[in-house]
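Researcher: Last one for today. Full complex below.
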Amino acid sequence: MDMDEAEISFFKDGLRLDGRGADQIRPIKIEVGVLARADGSCYVEMGKNKVIAAVYGPREVHPRHLQEVTRAIVRYRYNMASFSVEERKRPGPDRRSHELSKVSREALEPVILTSYFPRSVIDVFVEVLQADAGTRTAGINAASVALADAGIPMKSMISSCAAGKVGDTLIMDPMKEEDNFGQADMPVAMTPSGEITLLQMDGRLSQEEFRQALQMAMRGCREVYEIQRKSLLDKYSQLESEPVQEVQALE
Amino acid sequence: MDRKVVVPGDLLSEDAKRSGEGTFVKDGKVYSLLYGLANYKDKINVIPLAGKYVPAPGDNVIGVIKDITFSNWIVDINSPYDGLLHISEFPKRIEAEEMSKYLRMGSSIMTRVKDVDPTMKVELTLNDRKLGSIRTGRVIEISHTRVPRLIGKGGSMISMLKKEMNCNIFVGQNGMIWISGGEEEMDLALKTILLIEKEAHTNGLTDRIVEFLKSEKGARS
Amino acid sequence: MSSVLSEIRKDYLYNLVLKGERADGRKFDEYREISIEKNVISKAEGSALVKLGLSQVMVGVKMQPGEPFPDSPNRGVIITNAELVPLASPTFEPGPPNEVGIELARLVDRGVRESKAVDLEKLCIIPGKQVWVIFIDVHILDDCGNIKDASSLGAIAALLTTRVPASRFGLGEDYSLPVNDVPIATTAIEFGDVLMFDPDVDEESIANTKLTVISTADGSICGMQKSGPGMLTPEQANRIVDIACQKAREIREKFLEV
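Model: Here's the assembly. Have a good evening.
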């Protein structure tokens, strides 16, 4: 498409194409424990993104030469279903999914206590069922909850959100049109206390814009964390016949 | 309230000395490592809802033979780690060629963890009269995180069950449980154990189980 | 536990069979609870999420114009693929479909193709040059047994919801894909001389052999597949076919009502 940025209006009366304000994330839905075979699982909708994450492990490593004597290895496989995108995608990994798998794994690894499980593997599988920009952030959010659901020991949860720039304005959580025709896209993942585990950017930002975009993305991550936490606590209450008190969320 | 649901990273206490199982200490404060129930006693322990069984020396477990090597049976003990049963740990002196005659692929055994080394090499033993091959009865699986509740303080829950249900019961720390008795007795034992699994973390469970058994046995007589 | 079923579990299932019972209390010809959610993937032209007991399968249908095959210049093209992704089972490995995945895809394809559920002649755009290509993509989410039947059901359910995206390619207005039949696959296993329909995971692993029958709305058979190492007598095959067609009709009626 050869539309000029000047010709597209991403804002109308101060609102974005889908009615959001500049610093609003898309609606999020999280369901915990949706698969029977997996050790832990989570289904996430972020706007029109639909992803499902499953965790298997710790379990035996195959092939054995990959195992590490002192800790568990973590594997992350991001995959898109053929029907998840507008133009049907050939099944199987491509270069993009390999890169996404790597950075997503590196977003989660810092908080997983792998030393608890020598000579084993923690496998994380993320399937994108429908894509609308931000699938890697949705995947990381689902994976983090699936890891908790599987009982994997972690120092904290990981939450992910992207910031972007469109029409010279910084926005939170870009959707597909904003990502395609925007000026910058910056996915971020962090712990609730603000330690960054994923940071990628493509496009063009001034240094000041970067600082602001990072703050914006981190605020988005914080919002996601509250929803992740609530979904886990809600699932527990569903299992219980007794009401259980909640610990105060980390300030 | 002395029990709260927590997620990984939740702050549990400002007193590092209270760090128990399932927690870690950072900057003098105690945080949860797991998604589960935090138990507030002298120490704060977090009991997970899910997770894999990690073998420890002295644990009774039930396993299934999955491979036979020159001098070891490789045993699936429902863990990321397989158990190794060396031929010398078999209660009878047998030759290596005879191994599959006594325990073959798919055989189930009641065994004990003899030792676990730092690389998680798990050694099993059958050298005890209470251990051995499973030929009769049934084996069921519950989440290993519920086994402590099934056993009860000082074995109180499990002794009560064995008596009330007139069954032999062997509880594996790995969540595998063997029951042996009459058909009806085993059905009741199964139902009861699954009920305990479901309500493991609630209060007043022992009394409710006693009531349950009374009503079930009453209905059947 | 691992994928190795213990002998004691096998004995337990066998003893139940001798008593005429199954582990979850079902009758031998009884299906687990089925639910079909349609149009779950709005970006796909058609889609369905099928739950069969705890098994879950997502099927998406995508359509785009493409070249016809040289030997059928005026007919549309159907391409069926199945992804047995590792998320769905501890026994699925990443990578291109293996023989199990390929067999599944070809079985689903057979049902759609041989029943002529989709009239390929009607999918011609420019004779000899351009036709509609239909991609049926099966994505297994949770393998708790009998994903063959779940996949086949998902495929026809997704086709029934499919809208041909003509407007996107300047070929007129969108319209519903005409579907002429509702092929339903029903699978039975043979174990201990007994025939059981809709096997769960344990039952699949002890089965001597499996037979899948795909039947159409008028009760005739448009596809069959025996899989597994064991043998079937002609009586067993006939018996399976009889019950299969009946089960398919029950499922088709319930499903058409939805």
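The longest helix of chain C spans residues 234-257. The two ends of chain C are 37 Å apart (CA to CA).
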